[in-house]
Amino acid sequence: MGQVIALSRQRPRSARTGAPAPASAAPVFYFDLASPYTYLVAERVDRRLAYAEWRPARGGRFGTASASATAADAFERAWRAAEQRARDLHLPLVWPDRFPSPVPRAMRVADLAVGSGRGGAFVVAAGRLAFCGGFDLEDPLILAEAAAAAGLDVELALVAARDARRDGAIAASARAVWAEGGATLPALLYGGRLYCGEQRVTTAMLVAPSRAAVHPSAS
């Protein structure tokens, strides 16, 4: 279900710098491409909150892959809950073979996409490939396809995928969420509150002003 964290004691902070953000700051959407819930909500965020800032933040929780019986049961429940949520939303859900392993290369390309103003387009494209098609986002060919669909320069995207220096900013975004009491991704920071989990992000979108998404055309 996720949770809502009130941030009444302090102003929102930048995930990259830690500096306070202005009170009128745009919503900030934190996402992990390894999470099915990012896929389930990303297209709605992209359409309704076109002015939101997108930030890759690796580390969203989804059960556990531990071999212990208790952990295995928790993972199975989380797996089935995601499938049920997909059915509720009338969306397909196919599990990639590497799930629930992280996808660091894809997250680095997401960082590039965000910096190029194409974060939403890339996250939507990557999510469809991973959770509609079951494709491996760490495969350079799949990453190239997602990058091209988002209007990114494919060669630059593949260079970014290998650039481990981008991991620092991604980790900083995750730390910003956890520091504010967040427990899961995706999350949306809006109006002084942190909404964690796909359903809470959906709730936040109902109160946030909507604007139509307009992506830059591919060069």
Short description:
The protein has 219 residues and is α+β, with helices and mostly antiparallel strands. 45% of the residues lie in helices and 9% in strands. A hairpin with a 2-residue loop joins strand 4 and strand 5.
Q: What labels describe this entry?
A:
219 residues; alpha+beta; Glutaredoxin; 5-stranded mixed sheet; 8 helices; 5 strands; 45% helix; globular
Give me the secondary-structure topology:
Elements: E1 3-6, E2 28-31, H1 36-48, E3 53-56, H2 69-88, H3 104-115, H4 119-131, H5 140-149, H6 154-161, H7 167-179, E4 187-190, E5 193-196, H8 198-207
Low-pLDDT segments, ≥5 res: 3-24, 63-67, 212-219
Instruction: Name the structural class.
Output: alpha+beta
> Average pLDDT, to the nearest integer?
84
Major β-sheet, in short? 5 strands, mixed
Global geometry: globular
CATH architecture title? 3-Layer(aba) Sandwich
In spatial order, strands of the major sheet run 1-5-4-2-3
| Total strands | 5
Beta-sheet strand percentage?
5-15%
User: Total helix count?
Assistant: 8
- Give the domain tally: 1
Say what the CATH topology is: Glutaredoxin
Give the termini separation: 40 Å
CATH superfamily: Glutaredoxin
Report the order of strands and helices.
EEHEHHHHHHEEH
What CATH first level would be assigned? Answer: Alpha Beta
Radius of gyration: 16 Å
Instruction: Give the proportion of residues in helices.
Output: 40-55%
